[in-house]
Amino acid sequence: MNILDTIVAAKRKEVEERKSRQPLDLLERKEHFHRTTFSLAEFLKDPSKTGIIAEFKRKSPSKGIINGTADLWEVTAAYARLGASAISILTDEEFFGGSSQDLMDARSLNIPLLRKDFIIDPYQIYEARAIGADVILLIAACLTPEETRKLAMLAAEMQLSVLLELHDEEELGHVNEFTPIIGINNRNLKTFEVNIEKSLEMASKLPPHAIKVAESGIDKIATIQLFRENGFDGFLIGEQFMKAADPAKAFELFIQELKSNKLG
Ligand SMILES: O=P(O)(O)OC[C@@H](O)[C@@H](O)c1c[nH]c2ccccc12
Hints:
By secondary structure, the chain is an alpha/beta fold. Helices cover 40% and strands 17% of the residues. It is built from eleven helices and ten strands. The strands form two sheets. The protein has an eight-stranded parallel β-barrel with strand order 1-4-5-6-7-8-9-10, surrounded by four helices. Strands 2-3 form a two-stranded antiparallel sheet. The structure holds indole-3-glycerol phosphate. Indole-3-glycerol phosphate binds next to strand 10 and helix 10. Residues 55, 57, 116, 139, 165, 185, 215-218, 236-240 line the site of indole-3-glycerol phosphate.
């Protein structure tokens, strides 16, 4: 079994447990279930923002502990204030050290919040809505095209944006009318290998109107510029900020450099 298979098997068990602890009708009664959501597409296209989807990630199976001490509110509030277009929060506990509580702690920010998790069941979409997420991630590598379509349609009904994550050409069949925003993960979730070229290679194969997001392994302004030239609107960045003792400061410096580059 590769790591993705291991994660998905654990996730199936976890979801069954959560369903028995908190059935759907209870989730639907949560206060945040009925609040309005922010549109990821609108925030990514807003020229006053940077296109960066800044991530809060404490650990990962590929890197181990990335940051064991960062304060969720301090970091995400800085991301929002300093020009991120959206914030990604890992909610998987077992492999990424996150939680639903982490996402709930950030929900007063006026910016789209992406629930970063391995979604395989409609229950998790209701849950995402109930904890205050605006966006869900659907990873093609853990779904069939038909499952992707059904989950994306449900998300749309619930006013959630969808970021559909692809890694290679074989996954293009997952794209459908409910997935206008497509992320290309430069990291292969089965081997952890990171190849920045993946995004560039895939860009020309996506539908022309897709909103494109490059994901993982981005640690330089030059890479963002290269991606922009190739039609990308969004850049999902985690480790580059989280590996710093002070991720808020690391984000601030990165943004300063990005802005001075644009002017120069
Ligand atoms: O920390 P990085 O290399 O900047 O990557 C961020 C993000 O793309 C990565 O965390 C990610 C992309 N897709 C995922 C799916 C599940 C968990 C994590 C991810």
